């Protein structure tokens, strides 16, 4: 990994760095990503998680692991390059991969520490922020990972609840007349998202699959369609399906899928 070019930009405290990551480093990163991702990949003729890397690359393209490998490589490469350029990074504004051949080259726009003189700085009192990692913080992070690895499943044993996705047909009427843009079929509406006018989503809650019903709402006074602004409306609804988010259990199998650890205890320590 090396600094190829450093250029001060017109914007204050900004630099452009061109950085190269050598082929050996990139190859190690590719192998690391492969070992992590192969657990999730099914290839005909191989047990899940056992397909060789070259088989996966042949099926999905040789670039299948590039993005993740680059994500793993660039932070160290960029900060080493900044050190070589004699600057300290405050923020990374943009990164662009410009070449991939026996390694890769990236161009980054960074904000660096400004040169300045500070006087009269003694005597200030500050409160040190706690850096203690609590069980609650660990749980929050694991919940984020669970959410990213969730799946949507069809619900058949209960009515719509907040947070569900309701698959609906709907048609809207004002004074008994259907209006333009007020009709859709098999629309996936996330209940609680606030994507529809106030009162619409709340009235879907409690209804069951295959139920047909009507709801009444009032368009906001400043609605974008002026002809509907402030008007009372009726929507006829047909509820086709209820889908809910299913989160994976936090067990050893989950840990193996989302990390390089083997047990929940190891994973929590790593988090």
Question: Can you describe this structure?
Answer:
This protein is of the alpha+beta class. Helix content is 26%, strand content 33%. The strands form two sheets. Strands 5, 6, 7, 8 and 9 form a five-stranded antiparallel β-sheet that branches. A four-stranded antiparallel β-sheet has the order 1-2-4-3. It is extended, with a radius of gyration of 27 Å. The relative contact order is 0.12.
Summarize the structure.
The chain has 271 residues and is α+β, with helices and mostly antiparallel strands. The protein is built from six helices and nine strands; from the N terminus they run ββαααββαβββββαα. Strand 6 and strand 7 form a beta hairpin.
Look at the helices and sheets and give the structural class. alpha+beta
How far apart, in Å, are the first and last alpha carbons?
28 Å
Helix content: 25-40%
Mean pLDDT: 92
Query: Which oligomeric form is depicted?
Result: single chain
**Strand proportion:** 25-35%
Biggest sheet layout: 5 strands, antiparallel
Stretches where pLDDT is under 50 for at least 5 consecutive residues are none
| Principal-axes shape call | extended
């Amino acid at each position: 990994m090396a600094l190829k070019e450093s250029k001060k930009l017109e914007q204050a405290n900004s630099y452009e760095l061109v950085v190269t990551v050598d082929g050996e480093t990139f190859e190690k990163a590719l192998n690391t990503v492969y070992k992590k991702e192969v657990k999730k990949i099914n290839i005909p003729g191989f047990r899940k998680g056992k397909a060789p890397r070259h088989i996966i690359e042949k099926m999905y393209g040789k670039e299948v692991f590039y993005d993740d490998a680059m994500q793993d490589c660039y932070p160290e490469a960029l900060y080493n390059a900044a050190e070589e350029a004699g600057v300290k990074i405050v923020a990374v504004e943009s990164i662009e991969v410009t070449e991939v051949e026996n390694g890769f080259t990236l161009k980054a726009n960074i904000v660096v520490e400004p040169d300045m003189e500070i006087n009269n700085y003694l005597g200030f009192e500050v409160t040190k922020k706690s850096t203690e990692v609590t069980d609650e913080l660990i749980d929050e992070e694991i919940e984020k990972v669970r959410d990213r690895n969730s799946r949507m499943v069809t619900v058949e044993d209960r009515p719509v609840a907040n947070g569900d996705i309701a698959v609906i047909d709907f048609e809207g009427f004002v004074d008994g007349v259907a209006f333009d843009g007020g009709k859709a079929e098999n629309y996936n509406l996330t209940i609680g998202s606030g994507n529809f006018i106030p009162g619409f989503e709340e009235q879907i809650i409690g209804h069951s699959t295959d139920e047909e019903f009507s709801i009444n709402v009032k368009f906001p006074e400043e609605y974008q369609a002026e002809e509907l602004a402030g008007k009372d409306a009726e929507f006829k609804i047909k509820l086709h399906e209820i889908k809910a988010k299913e989160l994976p259990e936090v067990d050893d199998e989950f840990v193996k899928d989302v990390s390089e650890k083997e047990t929940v205890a190891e994973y929590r320590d790593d988090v």
